[in-house]
Amino acid sequence: MSSPYKMITSEPSLTMAPAIKDIEQGSDLLPYHDNSAGVDVKGDLTLLEKPHVAKPKWMSRPKRRWVHLLALFLLVLPITIFGARDIGRDILHWLRRHLHMHHHDVVHIDPQRDCIAYAAWDVTADAYTQTQNRAYQATAVFELPVSTSLYFESRGPSSLVEGSIEFTDDGMAGSDVISVEVTASYDRSDDLNITQTCWLQSQFEGSPWRNGVGIFSPDEWKAPIDAVSGAPLSFDIRVRFPRRPEFPLGLKSLQTSLPHFAHHVGNFQSSVSVESITLDSRGLKKRGYERNVGGGPITVESFSGKWGLFSTDNAEISGKFEVSRGLTLFAGRSVVNADVTLVNSDDQPPTTLVVENRMREHNCNVTLVSANESGMGGAFDVQVGGESSPVTVGIPYAPLDSILKFEAIGTNAALHATMHPAFEGTFLVTNQPSTPVVVNSFAEDPAHSGRERVVDVRRFSGSVQGSVAWRLPDTDRVTHRSRQSSVVVRGTGSTAVLVL
């Protein structure tokens, strides 16, 4: 009977060493001696090779490749979705900041070029008090000219510097300088030398001179072994504007970039007029060090101007705001409590309001005011958004014959929007999985002309839409602008309520 193995014969040579080694290690190639022929093979090496047996293939190679790609896709998909969501938020915030606040000039600060005077510190040792728990306290005062633009900046890791800034109108009456008092608190005698504090002065593309104060720290800093917890340096800045008895002090712009600094603005309703204000307390990622855990709270007793931008991370924004061009409030993962007045006239673009936060409640009352002589008309654009937190927005008053574009969007957030009685236009409320709710409350004619309010409501799966119009009895005539106003409330994962 013939053997099921095939004979392989080769001359002995060095090239057969790997094969011999495989034999010694138990390879599938086995030695074979042809004893039937009576020949003792010594010069030739005869090997047996097992016959090829086809293995069952449950899947071809191309199919396995597609399975691997599918598994990789399913693994990466959740990461991509959540990552894209965060990236999308950052892009949205950037767009909102630059589209709605395009009037702000970018301040490029070079400390070596823009510092014109450094702080002359008055140091007090053993400075412990009931409110001050640091060993050292140093104070410096800058007297800035009454400039049309002011700016304040802190650079460096938040683990090194924190603090607060306060704007008041209790400066010397009639003075032509703005007093800026900087107080540094620290525990080690040499901590103050880590930073540089100076009077900044710069000019941007032919604009008027800007004056301010800067606090500069090294980008890379490692806390000493004996350092106390928290930032080793705390700066408290107090900006005192002089009072003008005959008219408010006018500023073209007031800007801050003070990560992790608490901001407080006094009552500037009648004493200080600021055309554009930007207060930024967000912790920014710069040159590789970590993004701050959170910014400082922003509190505004009263502000009136054309533009306003207030941003922070994980800290509350609260106060009274009045603008005639645009206002943006971004509180990150914290609370927004704001009373907002938007002023507009027919000869200008719509006055805008953008409010956004996440994880915490959001409460805004928005009053719309017309600057026209008739007290009627005006155009307004309000956008609010929240995530995983209640969003409550009320518009208690609006001028007759005004145009309002209102949009509220919430994800896992309970949305509740209330419109003013003068509203005329279309509305759309959507929500999943809960049913959206539209409440048609009683309202008297805000024009006191005997008109009747006609509310048309159409309900669909997951949405309620319709229109509101005021018209005289027995007529179909409505306000000529009524079809230009609109309200959109979009909710996901919670409730969505619109009160008309």
List the helices and strands and how they pair.
Elements: E1 6-10, H1 17-24, E2 30-31, E3 45-49, H2 61-100, H3 111-114, E4 115-118, E5 122-125, E6 136-145, E7 149-155, E8 161-171, E9 177-186, E10 196-202, E11 210-216, E12 233-242, E13 249-257, E14 261-267, E15 272-280, E16 298-311, E17 317-330, E18 336-344, E19 351-358, E20 362-370, E21 379-387, E22 391-397, E23 403-411, E24 415-418, E25 425-432, E26 437-439, E27 452-460, E28 463-471, E29 486-492, E30 496-499
Parallel strand pairs: 7-11, 7-13, 8-12, 8-14, 13-15, 14-16, 15-16, 16-17, 17-18, 17-19, 18-20, 19-21, 20-22, 21-23, 22-24, 23-29, 24-30, 25-29, 26-30
Antiparallel strand pairs: 1-3, 2-3, 4-10, 5-6, 6-9, 9-12, 10-11, 25-28, 27-28
What does this molecule look like?
There is one protein chain. With 500 residues, the protein is mainly β. Helix content is 10%, strand content 46%. The protein has 3 helices and 30 strands. It has helices at residues 17-24, 61-100, 111-114; strands at residues 6-10, 30-31, 45-49, 115-118, 122-125, 136-145, 149-155, 161-171, 177-186, 196-202, 210-216, 233-242, 249-257, 261-267, 272-280, 298-311, 317-330, 336-344, 351-358, 362-370, 379-387, 391-397, 403-411, 415-418, 425-432, 437-439, 452-460, 463-471, 486-492, 496-499. It has a 27-stranded mixed sheet that branches. Strand 10 (196-202) and strand 11 form a beta hairpin. The longest helix is centred in the N-terminal third of the chain and has 40 residues, at 61-100.
